[in-house]
Amino acid sequence: MTPAGSVEQSRIKDELSFRGFALLRDLSEDSAVDSVNGLGDVLLRTDICPKANARGDVSTDLPMDLHTDHPRARWIAWHCIRQSSEGGESLLVDSVPLIARLTNHERDTLRNTQARTHLVFPADRPTHSVLSPVKEGADRIYFAPWLISAEASQPLRRLGSLIANAERISIRLKQGDLLVIDNTRMLHGRKAIRGDRDRLLRRYWISQVVPSVTSIPISHQQ
Ligand SMILES: [Fe+2]
Question: Of the CATH numbers 3.50.50.60, 3.40.50.2000, 3.30.930.10, 3.60.130.10, which one belongs to the domain with range 20-208?
Fold first, then answer.
């Protein structure tokens, strides 16, 4: 296992800016924590282990459709402690070229479309807009597959169709790998976990600007 130095920190930030994700190989737990802390404040750390047929649960071993996580998590990092003997590939889709294909009318509608969010932190609001404009570049995205229902608006269905047909980046994490994504740009999902299902990913939700009341500082794990 190698330590993550300042060069690696710089590379993570460059890759997040350029392509929306970064993958570091063979990191010790302390190095992974250093990399995570270099990105911002950790809102939440969760150990994710598969449970058979845990539908709708973060720990399901079933395939997970493409989505974004909690909107206050600007970055998500997964450190692979151990991987199942089969399956479990992480899937990523970049929303930037998809949003670019929407019409101005569709983008405007989605900026005014509120999607329900999970209430996790004390100051959470119950909804968040599907698209949020920024000063420069593509809108930030908040998306969940259940948004695409029979009642969904035409712009939502168009966005859902673009996501469903987008080319996926498939990454099978190995022990020591740290995958970091921009949660406001990259949709993520996962293929089914098969084989021995002896898998543990340590997930970090990271915020760039965090109100101190909800920040959960972490230290190196013993
Ligand atoms: Fe997720």
Answer: 3.60.130.10
For 31-81, the pLDDT digits (tens) are 999 999 999 999 999 999 998 767 667 788 999 999 999 999 999 999 999
**Measured distance CA(207)–CA(76) in Å, rounded:** 9
How far does residue 156's CA lie from ligand 1's centre (Å)?
20
6-19 and 29-37 helices cross at what angle (nearest 10)?
Answer: 60
Q: What is the pLDDT of residues 131-189, one digit of tens each?
A: 999 999 999 999 999 999 989 999 999 999 999 999 999 999 999 999 999 999 999 99
| 216: its two tokens | 């959960």
Distance 66 CA to ligand 1 centre (A): 8
User: What is the whole-number distance in angstroms between the Cα of residue 76 and the centre of ligand 1?
Assistant: 9
56 CA from centroid of ligand 1 (Å): 11
CA 68 to centroid of ligand 1, rounded, Å: 6
* Predicted TM-score (pTM) of this structure: 0.89
In the chain, domain spans: 20-208
